[in-house]
Amino acid sequence: MAERREGQRRQPHLSLPGRWRLHVRGRPRVRLPGRHRPGHPHLGRRGTGRRGAARPETHESRHIPPGPERSAGRLRGEAGPAHHRASHMGGDGRCPRSHRQGGAEGHVRAAVAVNPSTSRFSLRIRVQICLLVVISAATPLSAWAFSEASGTYQEAVRQEITRQETLLDDVRTVYTDDASLAFNVAAASARADALRPVRHESRTAAAEYEIAAQTAFTLRGAADSGSLLNDAYRHENLGYDLPRRLADLQRDKPKPYGLAPEATMRSGDVWVRWGLVFAALVGLAVLAGVAAANVVRPHALRRPPGPDRRRVVRDLQLIPQPAVPPSGESRLATLLNLFVVVLLMVLPLGGIYAAGVEQRAQAEAARKATQLGTAALAYGQRMAFLDGSRRTAELAELQAMARERASLETGVTPAQARHERVVAVVETRAAERVRRIADYMGRPPTRADRVDAAAVMALGKESEHLLSGLRTEQKRQVGLADRASSRGLYLGAAAAITAVAEMLVAAAVSDGRQRWLLWPVTAAACSTLLTVMALL
Question: How far is residue 473's CA from residue 479's CA, in Å, rounded to a whole number?
Fold first, then answer.
């Protein structure tokens, strides 16, 4: 037995009978505690165990494949390289106090190695993972909300165009197609009513009466039953009610007049608010991630490893970590890399918001332009009818004055001259009534006439001020769209330069040249300048 022990001391060999032990020349044999305790149920007097007894497989009893550590005479649990010994020894090269203590627990903890497969992330890394998940989810949600807002704004423009087209078509029908015919009927009827009492006094009066009466009857009979010449729209002395006719046409078209572009625009604004909420969530997550990347928990607040001795991963570079920069990389380079990464996360959201503002301004400008065109055309059609009707009344009055002058200068008999003057006086009164008819039929509609609010604004007395206000608002919205477009252009250029800066930082860090950091610093400064210009 002594010779066998002497041979083992001279030649190093590996013996793995259950719990492995390493025998190295010139070093004492490592014996694990508990193997030589008397009375152990599975061990003999020398600790060799009962022959054939099954032993539980532990981490230490697993087969160790041949490798550099085995050939060099070192395995886990023994003295190895400096970086390996540092994990089991103190700074003075001595084992920790827990390993130097007597008893089984201290020796077992010294012999059991850390299993990398059971490692866990530190609290800072886990917080950053959660924040990255929030950013990854909130960024597309914000873009989706702004996209929905843009589609809603375009839908509002389509609704406005449909509504204004229908309004303009109805105004054209009432004030261009029906109004002129109805006014001619009303004027002829007024002239016939004025000449009826004197039609038996002279042939001139009788002839004028018959002309007026037949004209009114023929025009009224040629009209359709559902047209403006229906008796439902006729006023006893003032012709026909054009605003009421317009209200009935609008009531027969509930679908186009039921569109609400303003409400649709407000719905788009709700989507924009949701997009801003998601963007703010991204911003808060980015700020929290930056704070977590720059902070490491003090050693006193760290949770000690559990019984399974799970390794804590603290240097995972999900984003640049100035708190624990990689080996060989300066803290300044890590800070610069983190700043560039933050710009890459934030600038796309700024571009999305600028695009949303541009879409809204363009939609509002298009709506105002449509309203402006409709109001101008509708107001022009009403005023054209009103001016034409007043000119007709003035012409009738001039004809009455000419008839009276002719009775004095044509050399007719006194009786004939008297009859001509009577007809002239009647025609003058008829011309005054025709003027009142023109004013009544060409009056601007009000809400009391049950006319649509847009039609009231377009055809109202204040339409000229409305047109001026619409022009001003349309120009303002165009300016907002131009500024938003420029802002988006600046932010897009800043994002592109930031991407270049990130590549330059990676090149400088990988090559290890600090002087190369001047290029990414310049690129980041240009990106920041463009961002400030976009905000201003």
Answer: 10
314: three-class secondary structure by DSSP = coil
Sign of the Cα pseudo-torsion (253, 255, 256, 258, in order)? positive
Cβ pair 292, 124 in contact under 8 A: yes
In a domain, 32, yes or no: no
Q: Tell whether 291 is covered by a domain.
A: no
The pLDDT value given to residue 101? 43
Between CA 91 and CA 81 the distance in angstroms is 14
**Nearest to 432, CA basis, from 194, 206, 182:** 194
Phi, psi angle pair for 240, to nearest 5°? -130, 150
- Return the residue matching tokens 């101008």: 376
Q: Ramachandran region of residue 39, left (φ > 0), alpha (ψ -120 to 50) or beta?
A: left
- In which residue are the tokens 């252009």 written? 489
Residue 17: DSSP 8-state? S
Range of the domain at 184: 123-265+363-498
How many C-beta neighbours within 10 Å does residue 144 have? 15
Measured distance CA(455)–CA(446) in Å, rounded: 9
Q: Mind spelling out the 3-state secondary structure of 45-89?
A: CCCCCCCCCCCCCCCCCCCCCCCHHHHCCCCCCCCCCHHHHCCCC
239 backbone dihedrals φ, ψ, rounded to 5°: 85, -125
| The pairing of beta strand 312-313 with beta strand 120-121 | parallel
Q: DSSP label at 467?
A: H
Any domain includes 240? yes
d(CA 67, CA 73): 10
For residue 239, the SS3 value is strand
- The interaxial angle of helices 331-409 and 463-511, nearest 10 deg, is 160
Those residues whose C-beta lies under 8 Å from the C-beta of residue 343, and which sit 6 or more positions away, are 494, 495, 498, 501, 524, 527, 528, 531
Distance CA 401, CA 428 (A): 8
> What is the C-alpha separation between 102 and 125, in angstroms, rounded?
37
Angstrom distance (rounded) from CA 503 to CA 343: 14
Chain position carrying tokens 């708190």: 323
Cα–chain center distance at 242: 45
- For residue 420, give Cα distances in angstroms to 199, 201, 409, 414: 12, 10, 12, 10
Give the separation between CA 304 and CA 291, rounded to whole angstroms. 24
Distance of alpha carbon 44 from alpha carbon 38, whole angstroms: 8
Residue segments in the chain with a per-residue pLDDT below the cut of 70: 1-118, 225-226, 297-310, 314-315, 328, 409-412
User: What is the domain count for the chain?
Assistant: 1
Indicate the DSSP class of residue 316. Answer: -
CA 261 vs CA 140, 151, 186, 196, 372: distances in Å:
27, 13, 39, 54, 15
CA nearest neighbour of 345 among 125, 123, 134, 126: 134
* Rg of the chain (C-alpha set): 49
In which residue are the tokens 């009421």 written? 244
Query: Is residue 369 included in any domain, yes or no?
Result: yes
The pTM of this model reads 0.67
In angstroms, the first-to-last Cα distance of the chain is: 92
